[in-house]
């Protein structure tokens, strides 16, 4: 998928969350790093259609995220920092089935898609579990299944390894690496994006570096003073 920002800016009242940005992206793996409040999540929310540009525009394969909102939003899936907040039904299988049902698919097709998607991420055994029974890593994978069952072209992760232990971090990292979809990863976990072909560094609402993972991390360390 080709993403383009044309002088896109995001404001919340008088506060500028993201300064005017012109940029094109199409890499299969894109990292986004920066200090807290740097604009990285605002940038990702504009792509996912969760925020609308105050000025300028954002397009996905030529679809304007405002004028073509529904079609553009269908191209992306967003996984929040706390994936438990986006799993809204009592049982994991029901939640994964929600998207296909909303598209009007028949029961047999819904069941097939849900089974395939749960198996794809190795979580078939979680199908009848409740969100509060799952570990952080299991919640990430359940949310990922609920997003990917809708066949987005890109999955956007907001701090996917935040507060995960080593075992669950490894599971989530492997799931991201195995995606056939494009992935955008916003993270303070620098090892997660180190090998990405393109990593963006934001600082105070401005894109200050755009390049390969190792170089981007070096620039980020300069900004952070460590």
From TrEMBL:
Keyword Transmembrane carried by entry = no
Please report the stretch or stretches of sequence annotated as the ABC transporter domain.
Answer: 3-223
Query: Origin, by domain of life?
Result: Bacteria
Transmembrane segments annotated in the record for this chain: none
Gene3D superfamilies hit by this protein:
P-loop containing nucleotide triphosphate hydrolases (3.40.50.300)
Keywords (A to Z) from UniProt? ATP-binding, Nucleotide-binding, Plasmid, Transport
Q: Name one Pfam family in it.
A: ABC_tran
PROSITE patterns according to UniProt: ABC_TRANSPORTER_2
Q: Name one GO molecular function term.
A: ATP binding
Q: Which PANTHER family match?
A: ENERGY-COUPLING FACTOR TRANSPORTER ATP-BINDING PROTEIN ECFA1, HEAVY METAL TRANSPORTER
The UniProt family comment states: Belongs to the ABC transporter superfamily.
Entry protein name: Energy-coupling factor ABC transporter ATP-binding protein
């Amino acid at each position: 998928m080709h993403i383009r920002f044309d002088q896109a800016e995001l404001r919340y009242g008088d506060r500028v969350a993201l300064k005017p940005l012109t940029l094109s992206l199409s890499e299969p793996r894109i990292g986004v790093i920066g200090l807290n409040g740097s604009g990285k999540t605002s940038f990702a929310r504009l792509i996912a259609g969760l925020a609308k540009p105050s000025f300028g525009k954002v397009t996905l394969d030529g679809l304007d995220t405002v004028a073509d909102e529904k079609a553009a939003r269908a191209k992306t899936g967003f996984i929040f920092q706390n994936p438990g907040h986006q799993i809204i039904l009592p049982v994991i299988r029901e939640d994964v089935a929600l998207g296909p049902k909303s598209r009007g698919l028949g029961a047999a097709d819904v069941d097939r898609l849900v089974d395939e998607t749960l198996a794809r991420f190795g979580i078939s055994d979680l199908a009848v579990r409740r969100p509060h029974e799952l570990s952080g890593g299991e919640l990430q994978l359940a949310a990922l299944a609920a997003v990917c069952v809708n066949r987005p072209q890109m999955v956007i992760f907001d701090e996917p390894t935040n507060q995960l232990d080593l075992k669950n971090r490894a599971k989530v990292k492997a799931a991201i690496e195995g995606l056939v979809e494009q992935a955008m990863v916003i993270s303070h976990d620098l090892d997660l994006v180190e090998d990405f072909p393109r990593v963006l560094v934001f600082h105070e609402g401005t894109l200050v570096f755009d390049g390969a993972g190792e170089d981007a991390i070096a620039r980020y360390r300069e900004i952070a003073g460590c």
